[in-house]
Amino acid sequence: MSTLKVVSSKLAAEIDKELMGPQIGFTLQQLMELAGFSVAQAVCRQFPLRGKTETEKGKHVFVIAGPGNNGGDGLVCARHLKLFGYNPVVFYPKRSERTEFYKQLVHQLNFFKVPVLSQDEGNWLEYLKPEKTLCIVDAIFGFSFKPPMREPFKGIVEELCKVQNIIPIVSVDVPTGWDVDKGPISQPSINPAVLVSLTVPKPCSSHIRENQTTHYVGGRFIPRDFANKFGFEPFGYESTDQILKL
Ligand SMILES: NC(=O)C1=CN([C@@H]2O[C@H](COP(=O)(O)OP(=O)(O)OC[C@H]3O[C@@H](n4cnc5c(N)ncnc54)[C@H](O)[C@@H]3O)[C@@H](O)[C@H]2O)[C@H](O)CC1
Ligand SMILES: [K+]
User: Fold this and answer.
1) d(CA 174, CA 165)
2) Is residue 39 a contact partner of residue 111, using CB atoms and an 8 Å limit?
3) Number of folded domains in the chain?
4) 11 or 238: whose pLDDT is higher?
5) Assigned domain for 198 exists
6) Known catalysed reaction(s)?
7) Any domain includes 1
8) What is the pLDDT of residues 165-184, one digit of tens each?
9) 155 alpha carbon to ligand 1 midpoint, in Å?
């Protein structure tokens, strides 16, 4: 088994800043597209449709998107999942008004006929049933979460904790509610079946349950020199894969 290499929340934010700074010039949109694409690949790898009955294939991937960029990764992931033959539904209770870009991501989901539920429309709890939902993508908070959690997300996470033993949760970058550096800090807490760390795992990933949580790294967008500059080795992705199982 490979040794986990981790970067703190502070360093993760610095890496992002530099990637999107004037020297390198990635846009947030570019990185988010690759991040969301890799999460969609992880869902496919973990829950393949091949060989499944029509009933199983019709089940939903329920994507819960938070107000920041972690939520944006979820919106992108849902679009790719639709292209991959899945049946995603997005719950987006607190929409980012930060940029036009988030509205565009929602327009794209409309274009792909992926339902996007608001807090006050539709009964989102209906999707927390194993006969209806294949897995839940937790794209609520990533590396910028600062406890304690505010509503409506506190209540949403409590509901997720109730069903996580019967519907697997795929957490994007950081399991929502965990301290990025320290891991689970309150009870109940999300224990994902799958964690997709983006760029490089954060320290909290050492708290995932051994033999119960599958850990992938995704967000394949940095060259070796850049990784080394921040003190870690790049991951050995194979071929055109956007994810690597750790
Ligand atoms: N290089 C990469 O790996 C990339 C990662 N990406 C993803 O971006 C997130 C980090 O995004 P950011 O916008 O900085 O933060 P979050 O989404 O984690 O959350 C900010 C959001 O949440 C609100 N908030 C914070 N704490 C609370 C709280 N206690 N209660 C309620 N609300 C809270 C805050 O106000 C903001 O609105 C990273 O993890 C990756 O998933 C990008 O896609 C780019 C590439
Ligand atoms: K998350």
Assistant:
1) 19
2) no
3) 1
4) 238
5) yes
6) (6R)-NADHX = (6S)-NADHX; (6R)-NADPHX = (6S)-NADPHX
7) no
8) 999 999 999 999 999 999 99
9) 18
Q: How far is the CA of 107 from the centre of ligand 2 (A)?
A: 22
Q: Whose CA is nearest to atom 25 of ligand 1?
A: 145
Amino acid at 217: V
Residue 4 lies in a domain: no
Q: Which of 8, 28, 63, 144 to mutate to test the pocket of ligand 1 (most atoms within 8 A of CB)?
A: 144
Distances (CA, A) of 231 to 3, 48, 128, 226, 228: 14, 35, 41, 9, 5
Is residue 4 scored above 60 in pLDDT?
no
State the pLDDT confidence band at 9, using cuts at 50, 70 and 90. confident
Domain span including residue 158: 9-245
Give me the percent of the chain exceeding a pLDDT of 70. 97
Q: What is the pLDDT of residue 98?
A: 67
Contacts of 186 (CB under 8 A, 6+ apart): 147, 148, 149, 177
Instruction: Give the CATH number for residue 174.
Output: 3.40.50.10260
- Best CA proximity match to 36, nearest among 88, 71, 64: 71
For ligand 1, atom 12, the nearest C-alpha belongs to 69
More confident residue, 206 or 4: 206
Residue 3 counted as domain residue: no
Write out the binding residues: 69-73, 138, 142-148, 173, 176
* CB 46 near ligand 1, within 6 Å: no
Contact 77, 40 (CB under 8 A): yes
Alpha carbon of 116 to those of 88, 111, 112, 222, 229: distances in Å?
A: 9, 11, 11, 32, 40
Mean pLDDT score of the chain: 93
- Which helix or strand (DSSP H or E) is residue 91 part of? strand 87-91
Among all chains, which residue has been given the structure tokens 């399991």?
175
